[in-house]
Design brief:
Elements (H helix, E strand, L loop, with lengths): L1 E6 L4 E8 L3 E9 L1 H5 L6 H21 L10 E7 L3 H18 L3 E5 H10 L4 H6 L4 E6 L4 E8 L2 E7 L5 H11 L6 H9 L24 H16 L5 H29 L5 E5 L6 H10 L4 E2 L11 H13 L12 H4 L8
Parallel strand pairs: 1-4, 4-5, 6-9, 9-10
Antiparallel strand pairs: 1-2, 2-3, 6-7, 7-8
The structure holds 5'-O-[(R)-(carboxyoxy)(hydroxy)phosphoryl]adenosine and zinc ion.
Length: 346
C-alpha cells in the first residue's frame, strides 16, 4: 500500500511516498528556515504563506523524479496537529483536495506520534518485531518534550512532558540570547564543541523525587542572567560563549537523561529506548543517552529527526490498518477541520 504523507505543521513543508509503512520511496522537504531567520523565530503567518507556495512545487518535484504517478497512491496521510493552526490548515486543505480529486482515503495523524514512526523507519524490521517493545520513547523537538511508554507501533501511553518550554524551544531561545542564528539548537551544539561544559554549572531544575516531567523555563532564565552578567563584567568573549553553550547543553540534555533513568525504574519491563524529534540530531545527546541508559537506544537517521512527511505517511499506514477504513473516506472526513471548530464543506 502506498501512502502519500503531507506535513506542514511548522516551518518545513514536506511530501513523501511510503510503501507499507516502512519503505520510503521518496521524501521531499522544503525548509523555510531562511525566511524566519530574519525575524529570529517562526512567524506563523509567514509559515502558512510559504506552505501554500511550496506544496504545489513539491508535488511536481515528487512525481517528476518518480516512476509512479498520483494514481498509484492508495491513501493520503496528513498532519492534523499539533502545530501552527494556519500552517496545519494549508496542509490539510491540500491533502483533502488531493484525496477528493483522486478519490482516496484521507488519514489525519498526530504530528508528535508521527515523530516516533520517523525513528522506527531507521530500525531493522526484525528488531521492531522481536526486541523493541515495550519501549521508552522520547519526542524532543521545538514544540514538544514528551516521554511515552510505547507498547506497539500504534499504542503509546504518555509518561511525562514538559510543564513549560520544550527542550528545542529552549535551545533556540538560549541561541538567541547568545546572538546565534536561528534555529539556535544546531548552533549551540556547534559552538559547544569548543566549550568547557563544567565551567558554568547550570541549575538542576527538577530533582529525582519530582514526577517524570520536564522543565526548561528556569534553565533559560539562568542562561540569560548568566550571559548578561558576563557581558556586564566584560567577560563575554567567544570562549565564554562556547562555555555557556556547552554548560547549558549539558544540563538541557542531562535533565532528559535523568528522567529517562527515573522512568526506567518505574517501568522495568521496558526493553529499549527510542529518541525522536529535531533535538535527537544532537550528537552529545546521542552520546549521553547511550552512556547512561542500560538499554539498546535507537535514534532516527538525520533526515528523519526533524519534520518530514515520511513519518506522517508511515503513521498513516499503521492507523489505517488498525481502524475501520470507512472512517477515512475523503468526503466524510472533516475531522482535521472540526478539531479547530472549522467543520463543514469548503
Ligand atoms: O522536530 P523539529 O524539526 O520540529 C518540531 O516539531 O518542533 O524540531 C526542531 C527543533 C528546533 O528547536 C531545533 O533547534 C532543534 O530541533 N534542533 C536541535 C538540533 N537540531 C535541531 N537542537 C539541539 N541540537 C541539534 N543538533
Ligand atoms: Zn516535529
Amino acid at each position: 500500500m502506498i501512502i502519500l504523507g503531507v506535513e506542514s505543521s511548522c516551518d518545513e513543508t514536506a511530501l513523501a511516498l511510503v510503501q507499507d509503512g516502512e519503505t520510503v520511496l521518496s521524501s521531499k522537504i522544503a525548509s523555510q528556515v531562511a525566511k524566519h531567520a530574519v525575524f529570529g523565530g517562526v512567524v506563523p503567518e509567514v509559515a502558512a504563506r510559504e506552505h501554500l507556495k511550496a506544496l504545489p512545487l513539491l508535488w511536481q518535484e515528487l512525481w517528476s523524479e518518480s516512476d509512479l504517478n498520483p494514481s498509484h497512491i492508495d491513501a493520503i496521510a496528513v498532519t492534523r496537529g499539533p502545530g501552527l493552526i494556519g500552517a496545519v490548515l494549508i496542509g490539510v486543505a491540500f491533502a483533502r483536495g488531493a484525496a477528493l480529486r483522486l478519490s482516496k482515503p484521507l488519514i489525519p495523524v498526530d504530528h508528535v506520534h508521527a515523530h516516533l514512526q520517523g525513528a522506527l523507519l531507521s530500525i531493522p524490521k526484525s528488531v521492531i518485531q522481536n526486541d523493541l517493545f515495550p519501549s521508552l520513547a522520547l519526542v524532543v523537538s521545538g514544540g514538544h518534550t514528551h516521554l511515552y511508554k510505547m507498547n506497539s507501533r500504534t499504542s503509546t501511553e504518555l509518561v511525562g512532558q514538559s510543564i513549560d518550554d520544550a527542550c528545542g524551544e529552549c535551545f533556540d531561545k538560549v541561541g538567541k540570547i547568545l546572538g546565534l542564528p536561528f534555529p539556535g539548537g544546531p548552533w549551540i551544539e556547534k559552538i559547544a564543541k569548543h566549550g568547557n561544559r563544567s565551567r558554568f554549572p547550570m541549575p538542576k531544575v527538577l530533582d529525582d523525587k519530582s514526577k517524570v516531567q520536564f522543565s526548561y523555563s528556569g534553565l533559560k532564565t539562568h542562561a540569560l542572567n548568566h550571559w548578561r552578567k558576563l557581558q556586564n563584567e566584560g567577560l563575554a568573549d567567544d570562549q565564554a560563549k562556547s562555555d555557556v553553550a556547552s554548560s547549558f547543553q549539558e544540563e538541557a540534555l542531562g535533565q532528559i537523561v535523568r528522567k529517562l533513568q527515573q522512568a526506567r525504574k518505574l517501568y522495568p519491563e521496558t526493553r529499549s529506548v527510542i529518541v525522536a524529534g529535531g533535538v535527537s540530531a544532537n550528537n552529545r545527546f546521542r552520546e549521553l543517552v547511550q552512556l547512561e541508559i542500560d538499554l539498546p537506544v535507537y535514534f532516527p537517521e538525520l533526515r528523519y529527526c526533524g519534520d518530514n512527511a515520511a513519518m506522517i505517511a508511515a503513521l498513516g499506514y499503521y492507523e489505517y490498518l488498525v481502524s475501520d477504513p470507512s472512517k477515512f473516506a475523503a468526503k466524510a472526513n472533516w475531522d482535521a477541520y472540526s478539531r479547530y471548530g472549522m467543520g463543514g464543506p469548503l
